[in-house]
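With this grant's support, the team has encoded backbone shapes as discrete tokens. A representative record is reproduced below.
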Amino acid sequence: MAIEDTLRPSHPLPVASSTGGANQVRVRAYNERLILSLVRLHGSLSKADIARLSGLSAQTASVIMRSLEKEDMLLRGDPVRGRVGQPSVPMQLNPDAVFSFGVKIGRRSADLVLMDFVGNIRLHLHETFRYPLPDQIMTFITGGIAKLEAQMRPQQRDRIAGIGIAAPFELWNWASEVGAPEGAMEVWRHFDLQTEVAARIPYPVFLQNDATSACGAELVFGKGSIYQDFVYFFVGSFIGGGIVLNSAIYSGRTGTAGAVGPLPVLGRNGEPRQLLEIASIFVLERMLRERSIDPEPLWYSADQWIDFGEPLSAWIDASAKALAQAIVAAASIIDFGAAIIDGGFPAWVRERLVKATIIEAGRLDLQGVVMPDIIEGSVGSQARAIGGASLPIFARYLTDQNVLFKDLS
């Protein structure tokens, strides 16, 4: 299966196609998506604001917004009174208008979330394992969705847009690093996850790389509105990332641009290493085992790590040195506005890692390099699941992200 094929839904969606003639139905569907996208981006907008930002006539914008309000897609805010004329009524997305499931498949754990239309996680399931196998993952997804559906009202279940899965590509690689028996992960090589889930779940199914999904979540729900261009690092079991250019994810010719893990950096003794061999959580796990410390708390809850003391500090220091080198290398190619660091760990670990990376970057030779802002991500440990859950919502209700950030003012 080609990488680009994984981004297509497993079932047809009842929305206008991007191809074919621009008939009235297609135009109306596009304009509805555009209005919903602009409201999502800005938080709330009046009809006059929508008309100005979209280029639609005031009458067309008003008609579409009334229709979206009648369908419970938009909610009225409190009137804002100005100096002249009628008060302005801001409109905002209805969080209960649409729901979607997001799945994160990691090498040590899996998460299933129910997300609403504005990116809030309503329900969450978590499972840990020594290493992932297809049967176990399928049981977690199908059983988990049934469990979450049972907690939803019938009206909410009718508004489920689909399921988005964020998973590492080529899960069979790096099996030895996670302690899987030789050959145990090979079953993934010929397992079509998207097709198998679609055969069991009555919703459209999307599949995306886990780090790319996390980058998309940061773009849509995090710092994406602040920086048009940034390089993104997500520190999971294995570090991954993404590249955002002109406020859209850049996937490159083969869909693997911004993987960041293979970036060459220097290790502690000056030997060449890949970034993922230093700044990945599996390295911290190995360090803990070498010190006879149980690493299992790493996977119980990404937001509730304990402070492991010296090994955690050593891992942060080594990761910061490697990340600083990777950021300088990336900035020497593209003058990113920011380098954003997030990961499957608590906010206090992220804060320590980012502060250490800033210090280490300042120690490098920066002549000729315009350094980006090195900042913390704002989505957090569930970025991969949130990014996955965003896929069916954007496919069905919102416009391409490039449209959102055009200068329409």
Remarks:
- Confidence is low (pLDDT under 50) at residues 1-8, 12-22, 401-409.
